[in-house]
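Following up on my earlier thread - several people asked me to post the actual chain instead of describing it. Fair enough. Here it is, all 118 residues.
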Amino acid sequence: MSHLRSAALSAVLLVTAASAQETPRKAQPAPKAKAAKPAPQPKLSNAARMGELLVDLNRATKEKLLTLPGLTPEQADKIIKARPILSKANLVTRGIMDAAQYATLKDRVTAKQRPNLH
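Reply from S.P.:
Thanks for posting it. Predicted structure:
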């Protein structure tokens, strides 16, 4: 009888081993690496950012005006002669540049007014 038990036990082990080999194991996904957080940027107010970036049409030198993309020396001279410019849209209404060029520059310029000190 012990031979019979050994044979039965061997058969069970063979079936278990065979089924384990046939059943593919699911691959474990690799752990995801955490992305590094970018360094925090200093928080500036909109006014501070714009003040650093905008060229004031009423106060800028010719050299500063010429840093604007596409602006010619002749247009810089016209801006200086047209001062005070009440609105940056005056660049078009006064014939200094066309609407297409203005569209590329309007977010880079401002026309600050001097306060009345009467």
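The longest strand covers residues 55-56. That should answer part of your original question.
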